[in-house]
Design goal:
Blueprint (H helix, E strand, L loop, with lengths): L7 E7 L5 H14 L4 E6 L9 E3 L5 E3 L1 E3 L14 E5 L7 H11 L3 E7 L9 H9 L2 E4 L2 E2 L6 E2 L1 E4 L15 E4 L7
Parallel strand pairs: 1-7, 1-8, 2-5, 2-6, 6-7
Antiparallel strand pairs: 3-4, 9-10, 11-12
Helix pairs in contact: 2-3
Length: about 180
């Protein structure tokens, strides 16, 4: 462990359309302004807007490294001060060990992702990272039905797979009252 640096894990979570990626990009850009070495990763399965950028729904973007397995982050993180990981729920449970090792090595690790799936079942990687995090930011969206605060991702298709990469055609943000699992 690098005794000169204080590593941390920060989790940004919430439902679809709550601004998780936007907040991740904001924190990483602030790190760049502070002259820190910043690197961002996303699972290669997420190619909604771009293969080589993390892109928010409002089209803000930051260059990233797409990877298939969490351990690939180690290949790029030697000189990095801040590691960002978007759509963390797409990784398997190995992401937990990767994030802990990075933080133990003195890195600031910022992960963003859905905390629950379309059935409101916690994504295991995110649930575990919430338990390991020093800082947690839970965002809300706006319920598309009634306009209240939304904490659920309502799937609009009949697809029953847990992971379905999508956007407004497949999901809506819903409050507890309007959510229909």
């Amino acid at each position: 462990m690098n005794k000169n640096k204080k590593g941390t894990i920060e989790v940004i979570c919430g439902p679809m359309f709550s601004g998780k990626t936007e907040e991740l990009i904001r924190r990483l850009v602030r790190g760049q302004i502070a002259k820190k070495n910043v690197s961002i990763f996303k699972n290669a399965v997420d190619n909604r807007y771009s293969d080589e950028y993390v892109v928010s729904h409002n089209q803000n973007k930051i260059k990233c490294q797409p990877i298939k397995e969490a351990k690939e982050i180690f290949n790029f993180s030697e000189e990095i001060d801040i590691v960002g990981i978007d759509e963390t729920q797409f990784f398997d449970l190995s992401i937990i060990d990767v994030c802990n090792k990075l933080a133990n090595d003195g890195k600031r690790v910022i992960v963003a992702g859905l905390d629950r799936d379309y059935k409101s079942i916690p994504f295991k990687p995110m649930a575990n990272l919430l338990a390991h995090a020093e800082k947690i930011t839970k965002l809300s969206s706006i319920c598309i039905v009634c306009g209240d605060y939304a904490y659920f991702s309502q799937r609009l298709t009949d697809d029953k797979t847990q992971i379905l990469v999508g956007e407004t055609d497949e999901y809506e943000a819903r409050c507890r009252k309007c959510f229909k699992p």
